[in-house]
């Protein structure tokens, strides 16, 4: 816990921003931290059109991102913006791969300066990379309880001027907030250089299209309301963070060990070699992703999960033709009753490193209502030849707290916050 108390600050009124920047920044509250610092978050599974287009400055969270990067193409006006000069400490710290001059604009601007260094800029939503993301620093301000602003005068981030890299970002989103665990300039690792923070953060995605989830930076407790204040970081199930150093940027990603999957209490017959990471090429295993809308399963895993799920459905539930190409397994919802954790469908347990350590997925996260009378299993089957065999996506993460302890190299899972009659959007929002 930091020096400003144990409650979280609210960024809905501009708690996180780059000082000196009068247009772009974290003015609508995209992220923040600690038991006393936080960031509001967009979820890739949410309906983008529901968000206010006036919310300038939001950043899409990316668990595997190397850095915070911002779209500087449209009016990043800051009196304190400083591009990193070639061979500077900032370039070395960022592990820059190149240096150069501005060649894409007729005049210098943030994102396009002379004698500056670059790293790769990434938009994981379109699986696209740019090799000229300008490294820079600016003054970052983070709100905290009891309402003060905590500032970092030399926060390193990357500034991009390439419109193509902004494709598929939600309305009002102006960049990617990188939470990678290896990069020295990822958000948690930079803030951990300050004694007020630890190398730990909590992530809680909201299921609502009208309210935001939250990132807690630093150690707990992490409080939400139901309506009483409760610490949702208690009673988590922890498993080890697995390192995967094969591939281009894979070392930043968050991998966990999954040993089996249970549906309605019964083990699903899996080819368990798919659940292991190949030490030669890094293929396989299970990765957590905030930029994947729905969990992806290797086709052979999906097929047995689908079969077991259908078998465990109530006998009076009928399968129907999928009304959308996105999902393969759909059924009538007329005879599916509602519970406090969503539709009453078979529970899915993601079994971690041992049988007693599992993350339970209830109906709110395992299925999706695609039309008035039709639900679909909210998992996607794909070949995944050169990818992780399981990619846990945003829909399955909604209304669950995940705590990433980078110091101890483990990850903690809650179950659905709906069990506690609360949600990720019900955090303390008293800071103004």
UniProtKB/TrEMBL annotation:
- What are the start and end residues of every segment in region (Disordered)? 35-66
Q: Name one GO cellular component term.
A: extracellular region
Coiled-coil intervals, chain numbering: none
Question: Do the record's keywords include RNA-binding?
Answer: no
Specify residue ranges for compositional bias: Acidic residues: 42-59
Q: What does UniProt give as the signal peptide span?
A: none
Keyword hit for Nucleotide-binding: no
Q: What is its main location?
A: secreted
Q: Where in the cell is it found?
A: Secreted, Extracellular space
Q: Could you tell me one molecular function GO term of this UniProt entry?
A: aspartic-type endopeptidase activity
Tell me, which GO biological process terms does this entry list? proteolysis
Keywords, sorted A to Z: Secreted, Signal
The family database entries (InterPro entries) matched by this protein are listed as:
Aspartic_peptidase_A1 (IPR001461), PEPTIDASE_A1 (IPR033121), Peptidase_aspartic_dom_sf (IPR021109), TAXi_C (IPR032799), TAXi_N (IPR032861)
Judging by the UniProt lineage, the source's domain of life is Eukaryota
Q: Where is the Peptidase A1 domain?
A: 44-414
Q: Which SUPFAM superfamilies match?
A: Acid proteases
Gene3D superfamilies xrefs: Acid Proteases
The entry's family comment says: Belongs to the peptidase A1 family.
Name this polypeptide is given: Peptidase A1 domain-containing protein
């Amino acid at each position: 816990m930091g020096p400003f108390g144990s409650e979280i600050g609210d960024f809905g009124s501009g708690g996180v921003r780059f000082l000196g920047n009068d247009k772009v920044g974290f003015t609508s509250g995209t992220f923040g931290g600690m038991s006393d610092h936080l960031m509001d978050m967009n979820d890739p599974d949410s309906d983008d059109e529901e968000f206010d287009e006036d919310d300038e400055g939001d950043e899409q969270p990316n668990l595997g991102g190397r850095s915070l990067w911002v779209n500087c193409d449209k009016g990043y006006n800051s009196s304190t913006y400083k591009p990193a000069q070639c061979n500077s400490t900032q370039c070395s710290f960022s592990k820059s791969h190149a240096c150069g001059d501005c060649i894409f604009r007729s005049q210098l601007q943030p994102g396009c300066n002379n004698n500056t260094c670059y790293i790769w800029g990434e938009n994981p939503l379109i699986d696209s990379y740019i090799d000229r993301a300008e490294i820079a620093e600016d003054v970052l301000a983070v709100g905290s309880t009891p309402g003060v602003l905590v500032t970092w005068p030399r926060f390193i981030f990357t500034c991009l001027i390439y419109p193509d890299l902004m494709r598929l970002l939600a309305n009002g989103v102006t960049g990617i907030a990188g939470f990678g665990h290896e990069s020295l300039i990822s958000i948690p690792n930079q803030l951990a250089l300050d004694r007020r923070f630890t190398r730990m953060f909590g992530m809680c995605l909201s299921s609502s299209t009208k309210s935001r989830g939250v990132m807690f930076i630093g150690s707990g407790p992490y409080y939400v309301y139901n309506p009483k204040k409760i610490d949702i970081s208690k009673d988590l199930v922890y498993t080890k963070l697995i390192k995967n150093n094969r591939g281009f940027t894979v070392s930043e990603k968050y991998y966990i060990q999954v040993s089996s999957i249970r549906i309605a209490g019964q083990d699903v017959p899996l080819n368990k070699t798919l659940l292991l990471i190949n030490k030669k090429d890094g293929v396989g295993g299970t990765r957590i992703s905030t930029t994947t809308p729905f969990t992806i399963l290797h086709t052979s895993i999906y097929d047995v999960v689908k079969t077991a799920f259908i078998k465990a459905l109530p006998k009076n539930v009928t399968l129907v033709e999928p009304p959308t190409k996105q999902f393969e397994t759909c059924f009538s919802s007329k005879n599916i009753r509602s519970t406090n954790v969503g539709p009453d469908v078979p529970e899915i347990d993601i079994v971690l490193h041992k049988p007693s350590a599992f993350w339970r997925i209830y109906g709110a996260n395992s299925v999706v209502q695609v039309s008035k009378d039709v639900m679909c299993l909210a998992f996607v089957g794909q070949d995944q030849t050169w990818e992780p065999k399981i990619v846990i996506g945003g829909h399955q993460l909604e209304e669950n707290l995940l705590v990433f302890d980078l110091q101890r190299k483990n990850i903690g899972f809650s179950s659905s916050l709906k069990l506690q009659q609360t949600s990720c959007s019900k955090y303390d929002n008293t800071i103004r």
